[in-house]
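Practice problem. Given the sequence and the SMILES for zinc ion, write out the predicted structure.
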Amino acid sequence: MNYIKPIFCLFFVSFLFIGQKEVYLQEKDKPAEFKVQTEQFADLAVLRYRIPGFESLTLKQKEFLYYLTQAAMSGRDIFYDQNFIYNLVIRRTLEGIVTGYKGDRSAATYADFMVYAKRFWFSNGIHHHYAELKFVPSVSKEYFADLVKNTPKKNLPLKKGQSVEAFLTFITPVIFDPSIAPVKVNQAAGADVIATSANNFYEGLTQKEVEEYYGKRFDKNASEPISLGLNSKLMKKNGKIIEKTWKVGGMYSAAIKQIVYWLEKALPLSETAQQKKSLSKLIEFYKTGSLKTFDEYSIEWVKDTEALIDITNGFIETYGDPLNYKATYESVVSFKDLEATKRIAAISNNAQWFEDNSPIVKEHKKKEVKGISAKVITVVAEAGDCSPSTPIGINLPNATWIRKEYGSKSVNLGNIVHAYNEATSEGALKEFAGSQAEIDLIKKYGDLSDDLHTDMHEVIGHASGQINPGIGTPRETLKNYASTIEEARADLVALYYVIDKKLVDIGVSPSTDLGKAEYYKYMRNGLMTQLMRIKPGENVEEAHMRNRQMIARWAYEKGKAEKVVEFVKRDGKTYIAINDFAKLRTIFGEMLKEIQRVTSEGDFAAAQNLIETYGVKVDKDLHKEVLERFAKLNIAPYKGFINPELVPVLKNGKIVDVTVAYPDDFTTQMLEYGEKYSFLPNEN
Ligand SMILES: [Zn+2]
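Answer key:
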């Protein structure tokens, strides 16, 4: 990738409309009565996913997966705390009420309170998981006080000797006052993005102080630079800046010890010697907190391609830090989907062809694109920053030099994508598609074009291109615009090739018409429909959304004179028409060339200009129209998942089998997790 953090590209599912599915996964294991969507509240829907193929694994593999899943869940508290310093105490308050409240649970106000509790769990804290903004309960403070007072004291996270009144005085404004900690990750241009972000990565510091602190420590000439600051909190103590490292014996020790405990149980069951090596390094990293060890682990992990089972576990993505230093805890436990992997492998095998034929200038191309390993995985469990809201594609590791020297692993989360597709309604497609021809194209090719876009974004998108010698990584050069630019680069590679005959030639696409379906979806989403995710008056903040709007708006402007893409009004409604697909593809190619130049040269001014011009501002009238049209459809813009549950079957204290249960109640699962995996104190 070149680039930075976004690598793990949480390529979140955009709101794409999908009709019938005719993709790889659905033929197998499809009990007709399996309910994918269990409930909907606020702007969220809760879904379930299946684990097809689990039953045919060996006992050893199942047991291995069980331990890895326990390790994954054990770090859950960390992510809450990273998001905001009081999230754990708030969560324990909410859970205390839900389990212990003695008053009337049939009241409408109680239902309103439950909506807040569920939103909180869904977002792992008080800030919206995607919009980053604080949301507050719709119930009154008085009602909240009543809930707390009618909950047994033992259920509440009171400090020693603290009265319920004193506790309420502390907790009420933290939950209810919108001016306290209003934004989790503030990216606003001109703001002190550190001082104004509510995350718990920095305390008492300004952006300037943080930039100076790491600027001094960053070694520009190092060929193998560690990911400075990745696993620590930076704060001031007695006027001095100190770093609190997340490791056994350091910050978050109690949870990390549990992660290590389960990883050590899993270790002997590793499928290959390489996998064992990789897991051993991960354990060592958690014990020492050494970032050099983390890099060693990442290298061993990249090399671990033979095993069927895999795990992402650690402090991985830095989207939660406006300066991209600190990484959030996350874990994905999975095994390979061998059939579907063939498709992604066909793209990966042709990575060099894609690089050679790319419209970027020669100096920015990699002479040798190497080490891309791509696969489709079947997810078994997700935790931390990957749950309940999940990525659909993952590309790791994030360290640029490791990617260059050793390559990366790129995965498509097959069973998650499948569940999304099953849950998406046809209503939105009918409402927003500009013509019957568009609807037909998307019904025919929509699912597969989604898969191919994701595959190419991850496998050849992030992996392509190179940075000019002597120029720092985008994190240094493009700063707060690095993530958006990197996602744009990967998307543009996918857009440029999705309509290419090459995909037909290598057997992954039935027709170049598939690319037309993708162009319709992408432009419609970027120009219009993704606006349904933000509130009136707000700008676009999230990196992937900014990237998509930037690409769509910029392409629209570039082709405006020739009417390549048009806004069309019909019966008072706005639609997107694409009049010239070939020309649109050429425009995407030109944009890719420029975005690669910005990345290769580290052109901050150009990155800022592109994103601020095209990616941030919202057309207010269009936004209003989109919200009104969506409101009528009653579709939740964001979706997240209940995890399946691995249940060990014990005989004489030994695991003799592991079965899968599919819980169907989000609240129950959240309460169980809160009970079972609550290892950290209220404040860390
Ligand atoms: Zn990405």
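Check your answer against the key. Residues 6, 9, 11, 457, 462, 487, 490 surround zinc ion (CB under 6 Å).
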